[in-house]
Amino acid sequence: MSPAEDVSPSEGLSHTNEDGESRMVDVGDKKISDRRAVAEGRILMNPSTLELISEGEVEKGDVLAVARIAAIQGAKETSRLIPMCHPLPLDHVEVEIENGVEGDRAWVMIRVQSRVQARTGGEMEAMVAVSAGLLTIYDMCKAVDRHMELDQIRLLEKSGGRSGHWTRAD
């Protein structure tokens, strides 16, 4: 299924009313279900920057530890950052961090899994968590590497709710 086929045309956009105005979706009649979402993204950098991170020599502190905390905090604050998101009582946020070097570029990848029992959500919390973690790495390392760039922030998997289980095919 292509990205354009993810939502049927008959469903339309759920965050607009019949006049095309933005609105928060009413989820009050939906059943509470176990929901899980997994997202990931990475930040590209110079290999020397990754070396500083790995050796704990970044002036601002332990970059990966702070990025992990930022990711968890980002998940918890999603509804405050994304206007139409419902506040969710997250049950768990798991953060995995990997890194490597490919040619003349290094990378740090953050993968987040969110779990919640709710009427909606989970995927935005995972996506915001990844973004917050990556932006924290950028913030802590920008003094030594202004060429860093965020890359491939995306939802990998989502389960629960009416739409069931979805996994990225690529």
Strand segment count: 5
SSE sequence, one letter per element: EHHHEEHEE
How much is the radius of gyration in Å? 18 Å
* Adjacency order of strands in the biggest sheet: 2-3-1-4-5
Q: What composes the largest sheet?
A: 5 strands, antiparallel
Instruction: Flag low-confidence runs.
Output: 1-5
Outline, from the CA principal axes? Answer: elongated
First-residue to last-residue Cα separation: 11 Å
Describe this structure in words.
This protein is an alpha+beta fold and 170 residues long. The protein has a single domain (29-161), classed as Molybdopterin cofactor biosynthesis C (MoaC) domain (Alpha-Beta Plaits, 2-Layer Sandwich). Helix content is 26%, strand content 31%. It has helices at residues 47-54, 63-76, 78-81, 123-141; strands at 33-45, 90-102, 105-118, 149-159, 166-167. The protein has a five-stranded antiparallel sheet with strand order 2-3-1-4-5. A hairpin with a 2-residue loop joins strand 2 (90-102) and strand 3 (105-118). Helix 2 (63-76) runs antiparallel to helix 4. 33% of the residues are buried. Residues 1-5 have low confidence and may be disordered.
